[in-house]
Each structure stands twice: as C-alpha cells, then as structure tokens.
Design goal:
The complex is a heterodimer of chains A (about 350) and B (about 250). Chain A is of the alpha+beta class and about 350 residues long. Chain A has 11 helices and 7 strands. In chain A, a hairpin with a 2-residue loop joins strand 4 and strand 5 (about 290-300). Chain B has 2 domains: about 10-140, Response regulator (Rossmann fold), CATH 3.40.50.2300; about 145-250, LytTr DNA-binding domain (OB fold (Dihydrolipoamide Acetyltransferase, E2P), Beta Barrel), CATH 2.40.50.1020. In chain B, helix 2 runs parallel beside helix 3. Chain B starts with 10 loop residues before the first strand and ends with a helix. The chains are: A alpha+beta (about 350), B alpha/beta (about 250).
Chain lengths: ~350, ~250
C-alpha cells in the first residue's frame, strides 16, 4: 500500500502541497490571457486530480530501485512513466475543458483555456519528474534509516549474546548439578571426578572465550556443544546418547558464537530430562554449496505441560540469526511423535 | 503418617532422583548415619508412588525436577503417608516446599552433616505422628496462580493421569472427590472446594454443593416433575443443579 494513502494526515499534507503548486501555476497563467479566477478554475481541480496520477511515481521507484538498477534503466523508466503520466494529464485536461464547453457562456473561456494546454502539459511532465526525484530521495532516506536500525539491532543482539554467554557460563543450576556429580564421583570413581572437573573447566573457558568474539568457526562452536553434552552425559548416564553427522567441509564456516549452545541445552533440559528413559540427541551439519543446514533432534515428552518450542533459548537464537543474516537464515521447529527437531539454514561464509 | 513412628526402630528411607550419581551420593551419606535403612531407590515419580504404597517408607528424599511427575506431584499423591525432604539444585521451590510441610529442603550439593540435621528433623516430626493437610499438598502440586491441566490420582501403587478436558464432572464423596473421566470413577482425598479452585473457572462450574461440572460435557438443563433443575450431560447422565449453581451456570452460558 502506498505510504501516503495509508495515513490520512499524510494525504492531507500531500494534497495541500499540490494546492499550493496549483495556485502558483494559476498565478503564472493569469498573465497569459486568462484572469486569475479563470486560471484557478482551470488549474486547481486539474492538478489536484493529477496529484493522484503522480502517486504512481512511488510504484515506479519501487519497481526500478536506484541501487540495483542501471542508470539507463532508471532513465528509461522515468522517461516512459512521465510521458504516460503526461498523456493521462492531457486526457484529464481535455475532459475538464469539455465540461466548460458544454456550459452556456463559457465556450469562449474554454477556447482560451485550450491555448494554455502546451505550457500546462510541460508543467505536468516536469511535476511528475519532480515526484519521481522526491520519491527516490525519500526511499534512499528510509533505506539509510533501516540500515541504521538493523545495525542497532545487531549490536543489541550481540550484547544480548554476550550476556547470555556469561549466563550460560554462570548458570547456577548447571554448575550446582555438575558439582553434585563431582561430589558423587569422588569416592567411587576418582578418575571420573577428575575428568568431570577438566570438562567443566574447558567448557567454562571456551564459553567465556567464544562469548567475547563476534564470530567463531563452526568447528569451535560444535566442540563447545560437545563439551556441554559430555558433561551432561556424566549426569544422565545411559539416558543421554549423542549421534553426530558432521560434514567436515562445513567446519570453517563463520557463525555467531554460542548460537548452537542454547539449542543443545534445550535438547537436554527440556527433552532428555523430561523423558523417563532418555534417548538420543542427534546433531546433523551439512553443507550444500554456499548454504549450511543444521538440524538438532531430541526425544521429548509429548504430554509435557510446556511444549519445547517456546523456550527463551529458541527465541534468542532466532533473533541472533536474524540480526546477523537477515532473511538469509531460517529456523524452524517441529514436534512429532515424541521427537523434537530444530532446523537451521544459514549462508556459508568462511571469511570475515 | 497416621501413627507415630517408634524411635527405637531404624528410619526407613527411599531415595527418589532421576540421576544415578545424585542417588549414589545420598546412599553413601546415609550408610554412615546410624539407624537409617535405605529400603529403595527410585529413578522417577511413578516408582516413588509404587514404593510408598508397597514398602511404606518413613521418609522420602525427593528430587523436584524429574520427568513426567515432578517432586511436588509425587508429594500430592503420597504426602499423607510419608515424610518428605526435598533435594534439589533449584532454590526457587523452597517456599512451596515449606507450604506443603516438607521436613526440610536440601540444596545440591550438600554436606553429610546437613543431611544428618535434616534426618534428625524428620525423626522428630515422625515421632509426633502429625498428619499433613491434604489440600496444602494438592495446591502446591502446581505453581502458584496456574490452573491444573491434569489431575493425578493414586490407585494403590498406580498413578492415573487425568487430562482436565476429559473430566466430565467431579462429585464430593465424604472426604474424597470422585473424578468421572472416560466412563470411570477416580477417588482422591481432596475437598470439592479445593478441586474447584484448582480448575479453570471458565470451564468448570460448581453447579451443586456436591458437584463441579465441565461445561464441555453439558448437553442441556431441564426441569424435573418437582421443578428442580437437572443438568443433562452429553452421555445422558443427570446431575442436580442448585439455585446458586444455576446462577453461576447462567453467568457462563
């Protein structure tokens, strides 16, 4: 929908501006053989009607954007559309003057009006070109503002991610449960307790490190998720199995840090932990040309009171992917017969 | 806990936690404490209910976050028969735990001494033979200000999970509430007023002193020969509607 037509106050402003233009043109015309009231009667309704024709400039500018179309194309589009607009104007002008013809006593004025048509036609074409120029300017301005907004969102999400990284690192329940596992292992399996301490330290260190970067290689992100899963496997024992299918050519991809971590954490805390016998979490990573496809699947309780897809972790990942890749990244989640699956696709880029 | 516990007998304890390591640390601590016997270890809430019914332990050491049935739901089902100490990594349930008169609330990881104190408290409580208020248990089985989406009923060592949408009506029977669900009747020790407050008031109406009705199951209301209002259910069953009950019903329809 045209931005001027969607808001009554904008339309009023627009028509007001055209009325001023009409009055100015009538003023000029009143020195060319017409009186001022006569000019006004001729010009004002004509140009107010024509103002709606000029609204179409917006559609032309949208169809032929300055940024992505060549100069020749833009010029051709402008020339063609202004000729068509001028043609429409001519139609309007002859129709309006014909109205005067039909009124008794105005035929003489109509004849004088007709003499003014060439100069008015020139004005109409110029006005349409002006409308095109103003629209292009407005669109460019809007685009710049949107870019600024996107940049701002990106920063906000990056900051959010940092906070989240810190939170994941300091998630008290994860830590308390780890410490409890270590406490349990110390007497029965000292080696296991030591391994758990090392895993936990590595996980905390890599989380802190990754959280401070803007992008990391996918391989590092997967290693981080692996450490998390290894720690949870100590806690859950046989209830947590992990299967990975990792396309080695995808490991160099640059990705936002800790974007898989919340999904893997979800798969454990809202999936495995809610199912009596646990099950297998699968992590699939595929590269198809310049696209990455990642899928994380886990068993879930179909009768769970809070369905998995509503977690804050999911929202966070979605927002960050959107902030970094825009519509080039997609994310979808499905629960089907006791399995929950998140699918991500994003552009593959290996350089910064 | 209908009878006071004889303090000369060992304390019979069941451990309920879905993590094997968490169970093992409890077992290890308990072996060092005199006059304590671990009679069972349960990996989930269903096993816990079965153990309470069949082995009648004095005390449950109960995790809160478990699959299918959480610790509070287990307590709702068995809390009248056994003392409970909650054992969890989450401190946000502490308030609810004391509302349901849990003996104690241990935060993982904890020391053997801390567990010893909690057991002492349990022995003291058991020797007095206090009976827990059932309504408090049911209320705390769900988070504050939420409506139940399912009702848990214990039948000996079994647990029935009734989705509220399938409950046609609830009838007061002495100290019990009888839930009518898919043609069967399930008894739970709970007052009808408490049942009413746990269910969605837009769906469930107290139509009579002794009945709460699920509106989805109501076919029509008619008058009998003595001018009493009768609610006819979709399966043809007929329930009495009191004057006040009819007013409440009319407000919703």
């Amino acid at each position: 929908m045209h931005p001027i037509l969607t808001r009554p106050e904008r339309l009023a402003l627009y028509l007001g501006a055209w009325a001023v233009v009409g009055i100015l043109i009538a003023g000029v015309l009143s020195r060319q053989g017409l009186t001022f009231p006569e000019s006004l009667v001729l010009v004002l309704p004509l140009f107010l009607a024509y103002s709606f024709v000029c609204l179409s400039a917006w559609y032309v500018c949208r169809a032929v954007p300055l940024r992505s179309s060549g100069l020749v194309r833009v010029l051709i589009a402008c020339a063609t559309s202004s000729v068509i607009a001028g043609g429409l104007w001519l139609g309007l002008a002859y129709a309006w003057i014909a109205v005067f013809d039909s009124m008794p006593g105005l035929a003489e004025m109509a004849a004088r009006d007709r003499q003014q048509i060439p100069i008015l036609f020139a004005a109409a074409v110029l006005l349409f070109l002006l409308a095109l120029a103003v629209t292009y300017l407005g669109l460019a301005f809007e685009e710049a503002r949107e870019a600024e907004q996107r940049q701002y969102e990106l920063q906000a999400h990056a900051r959010n991610a940092e906070l989240r990284a810190l939170r994941a690192q300091l998630d008290p329940h994860f830590l308390y449960n780890c410490l409890n596992s270590i406490a349990a292992l110390t007497s029965a399996d000292a080696g296991g307790a030591r391994r758990m301490c090392v895993l936990l330290a590595e996980f905390l260190r890599s989380t802190l490190h990754a959280g401070a970067l803007s992008r990391i290689p996918l391989g590092d992100e997967l290693a981080l998720a692996d450490r998390f899963l290894a720690i949870e496997q100590v806690r859950f024992g046989d209830r947590l199995q992990v299967t990975r299918h990792i396309d080695q050519s995808s490991l160099a991809a640059r990705v936002p840090p800790l974007f898989l971590q919340p999904l893997v954490e979800n798969a454990v805390t809202h999936g495995i932990a809610e199912v009596l016998d646990g099950g297998t979490i699968t992590v699939d990573v595929n590269r198809r040309g310049d696209r990455l496809a990642i899928a994380i699947e886990n068993p879930c309780d179909p009768d769970a009171l809070t369905p998995m897809r509503h977690g804050t972790g999911m929202t966070n990942v979605r927002q960050r992917l959107h902030a970094m890749f825009g519509p080039a990244a997609t994310m979808s989640a499905h629960a089907h017969s006791g399995r929950f699956r998140v699918d991500l696709t994003l552009p593959f880029s290996s350089d910064d | 806990m209908t009878n006071a516990h004889d303090s000369s007998l060992p304390l019979r304890v069941a451990i309920v936690d879905d993590e094997a390591l968490a169970r093992s640390v409890l077992r290890e601590y308990l072996t060092a404490i005199p006059d304590v016997e671990v009679i069972a270890e349960c990996a989930n809430g269903f096993e816990a209910v079965k153990v309470v019914a069949e082995l009648k332990p004095d005390l449950l050491l109960l995790d809160v976050q478990m699959p299918k049935l959480d610790g509070f739901e287990v307590l709702d089902l068995v809390g009248r028969d056994v003392a409970v100490i909650f054992v969890t990594a989450f401190d946000q349930y502490a308030l609810r735990a004391f509302e349901v008169h849990a003996v104690d609330y241990l935060l993982k990881p904890f020391s053997a001494d801390r567990l010893g104190d909690a057991l002492g408290r349990a022995r003291e409580r058991l020797s007095k033979g206090e009976r827990l208020p059932g309504d408090a248990l049911s209320k705390a089985a769900r988070p504050a200000n939420t409506r139940a989406s399912r009702v848990l009923v214990r039948d000996g060592s079994r647990v029935h999970v009734l989705p509220v949408a399938k409950i046609a009506y609830v009838q007061a029977q002495d100290d019990y509430a009888a839930f009518f669900c898919e043609g069967k009747e399930y008894l739970k020790e709970q007052t009808l007023t408490d049942v009413e407050s746990s269910l969605d008031p837009a769906k469930f109406v107290r139509i009579h002193r002794s009945y709460v009705l699920n509106l989805d199951w109501l076919a029509r209301v008619e008058l009998d020969e003595r001018e009493n209002r009768i609610a006819v259910l979709t399966d043809g069953r007929r329930l009495p509607v009191s004057r006040a009950g009819y007013t409440r019903l009319a407000e919703l329809l």
